[in-house]
Amino acid sequence: IYFPTPLCVVVRVVLLYLSVFPLCHQTHSLQDFQRPAVSSKVFIQRDYSSGTICKFQTKFPSELESRLDKQQFEETIQTLNNLYAEAEKLGGSSYLEGCLACLTAYTVFLCMETHYEKVLKKIARYIRDQNEKIYAPRGLLLTDPIERGLRVVEITIFEDRNIGSAR
Amino acid sequence: METPYKKKTPKKRKWETFPGRNKFYCDGRIMMAKQTGVFYLTLVLILVTCGLFFTFDCWFLAEQLTPIIPVIGAVLFLFVIGTLLRTSFSDPGVLPRATPDEAADLERQIDVANGSTGYRPPPRTKEVVINGQTVKLKYCFTCKIFRPPRASHCSLCDNCVERFDHHCPWVGNCVGKRNYRFFYMFILSLSFLTVFIFAFVITHIILNSQRIGFLSALKDSPVVVCFFSVWSIVGLSGFHTYLISSNQTTNEDIKGSWSSKRSKDNYNPYSYGNIFTNCCAALCGPLPPRWLPSGPLYVCMLVATGFAQLDPRVEKKKKPAAFLLRSQYHTDQKEHLVSFCSFPVPFFRLKTHSHHLLIQFQILPSVLFKV
Q: Which of B172, B181, B185 has the alpha carbon at shortest distance from B88?
């Protein structure tokens, strides 16, 4: 049985509002407005020619020819490939992180993020930017590859409402 | 305002709708294979052996030789248990199955490549050249994907696992890309622990037999449980050390994929060339993230302070506060709601209802952090 003090209640209400406010103002970019119908999906597969590192094929799919420039597409995929290479890079800093983690019995990851996770956040931000600036205006949507286990980059093609016919 | 709550169907997390044969605990944070009996046996064996050692031998050895012995033993024991739990509970690197759109797209591409004919098409493979070596990528009929190189489908867990090593029943999980280093640390530390215990039990017997004779010393000391396990575990550690230094998996070694006996030009395309880099890459390289996310830990922290489903009696009294909280968590999580009492409730209520717990504490909320 607990009897709260008034101070306790006040502090809790303040903390409650502080924690709730930033989350209430979350932006849902593509979910808020009405979504056009999905016309088709294109899947960019992995490129295994350099081994098991995460790399996607830069070949421009024919279904996007009418919507997107080849150069923009290649730039997006190349940047993603570079970011993944940065995440998986074997070097002094990653070894140090591994050794530190081993010595602390991996409890250090309760306080800090791994390098890979940091880069994944960067990738998520980059994909969001690309969607907002380039892909959404053309009726396309890039899905973050991590949602598909880093197997494919899924590009959803929406019906082009301006022309009024499904492609 | 009860309608918004009732109309909303709670979105399921990915691990709840996971198609493989895995068991999940702690809201998806712990992932194990279906058959876990042997894992509990491993745990019991280790605990019993160490328990017997600490109870019977440590006092004697601490007195006769040095008290550092039990300390080292304890450290080794904790490390073994830690790495065992980490190996058993972590995601080995499971690949998600293809979405229906993806599977249809792949089928279409394969039909175009083969030329759709009446009879059954041959097994689907794709060839890729990695570092000058031709590698065949097989199509997985269960997961409907072309398996990445070094991935394999585990029939026990019914998943494709990246860099599949083997399915270890002792650990109750597959050993793959994400937990191979923990597995290696486990068997290495276990071999040190068993050699340590074995050596000191023998020492104890010898020291004892000087006083009271060998046979009666053997009777006093518990039978050396770890005698046979020493050789098998040390052997396994040695084998895996060889695998790590040549950057191979158990799967590849057993099949002889990169053995020079197959053909003269056969070599391992994944090896970095020197042993040191191979070891560092396997043990200290970056840890890939898991695809199956679990809820952020800040939800858990709120459990300690007041993580609750709305109780109908309570809701009527503080609807506005509850509604704000509801919108906070409605993106991809269960309807975990926090009920902070805005007026003092001088009692502690606990009610369990499937996954929801109603706890009303009157303590301050703890620090929120995210895992």
A: B172
Would you state the pLDDT for residue B116? 56
CA distance B44 to chain A (A): 22
- Side-chain half-sphere of A107: how many Cα atoms within 13 Å? 5
Higher pLDDT: A18 or B254? It is B254
Q: How far apart are CA B230 and CA B312, in angstroms?
A: 60
Determine phi and psi for B364, rounding to 5 degrees.
Answer: -70, 150
Q: What angle do CA B212, B218, B219 make, to 5 degrees?
A: 90
Mind telling me how many Å the CA of A131 is from chain B's nearest CA?
Answer: 20
- Give the one of B149, B277, B289 whose C-beta lies nearest to A52's C-beta: B149
- pLDDT classification of B123: cutoffs 50, 70, 90: low
The per-residue pLDDT of chain A, averaged, comes to 80
Q: Best residue in B284, B294, B307, B332 to probe A by mutation, most A CBs within 10 Å?
A: B284
Distance between CA B261 and CA A95 in Å, rounded?
Answer: 35
Contact B190, B98 (CB under 8 A): no
* B positions 277-306 inside 8 Å of A (CB): 277, 280-281, 283-289, 291
Most confident of the ranges A18-22, A80-84, A106-110, B4-8: A80-84
Write the residue in B148, B287, B361 that is nearest to A48 by C-beta.
B148
Which chain A residues are closer than 8 Å to B131 by Cβ?
50-51
Q: What is the DSSP string of A123-138?
A: HHHHHHHHIIIIIGGG
Predicted local distance difference test score (pLDDT) of residue A56:
93
Q: Which residues contact B182 (CB under 8 A, 6 or more apart)?
A: B83, B86, B87, B90
Candidate from A135-139, B137-141, B214-218, B293-297 with smallest mean pLDDT: B293-297
ipTM: 0.74
Please check whether residue B128 is in contact with residue B137, taking contact to mean a CB–CB distance below 8 angstroms. yes
